[in-house]
Design brief:
The chain has helices at 11-21, 25-47, 63-66, 89-92, 95-101, 116-121, 123-142; strands spanning 2-4, 75-77, 80-85. It is mainly alpha-helical. It has one domain (2-142). A hairpin with a 2-residue loop joins strand 2 (75-77) and strand 3. Helix 1 runs parallel beside helix 7 and helix 2 (25-47) packs antiparallel against helix 7.
Length: 144
């Protein structure tokens, strides 16, 4: 399970504007994190096709995909908010980890599912997430 956070340049300026206008920064933050969760979840769902699985999906049943976190639940720890994305490890087991990283030390080695790691941690995904978060927060300011 991964966690998404609000991290982009200019966040402190946006936060200051929310405070100046008397807007609810907590609500805007939660909306941005929910949008982040939706984007990453859709990326994972697009990658989970038999052709991207190890052995061209020969042994793929789709049970791991059923354990994907589809509901965004924003968690607050003091002033820090995050949203869990990806698979619930307790339910999906270690299968999701094997699919993300492969099993290079196992004989015979299993390759990772193509694009799964990038769907969550990839450079393009991170850039798009920052853009989505910025857009949601700016939209919240425009609505004031």
């Amino acid at each position: 399970m991964a966690r998404a956070k609000l991290e982009f340049e200019g966040f402190s300026e946006i936060a200051q504007r929310y405070i100046e206008f008397g807007a609810n920064l907590r609500k805007g933050t939660e909306q941005a994190l929910v949008a982040t969760h939706e984007y990453i979840t859709s990326n994972i769902e697009q990658v989970f096709t038999p052709s991207n699985m190890p052995a061209k999906g020969k042994y793929w049943t789709g049970k791991t995909l059923e354990k994907l976190r589809r509901q965004a639940t924003v968690e607050w720890n003091g002033d820090v908010a995050s949203v869990p994305v990806g698979f619930e490890i307790k339910e999906a087991g270690i299968n999701s980890i094997f699919l993300m990283y492969g099993t290079p030390r196992h004989k015979p080695p299993m390759k990772a599912a193509r694009g799964l790691y990038d769907a969550i941690y990839g450079k393009k995904t991170i850039e798009n997430v920052r853009g989505i978060q910025e857009e949601v927060l700016y939209r919240g300011l425009e609505n004031l």
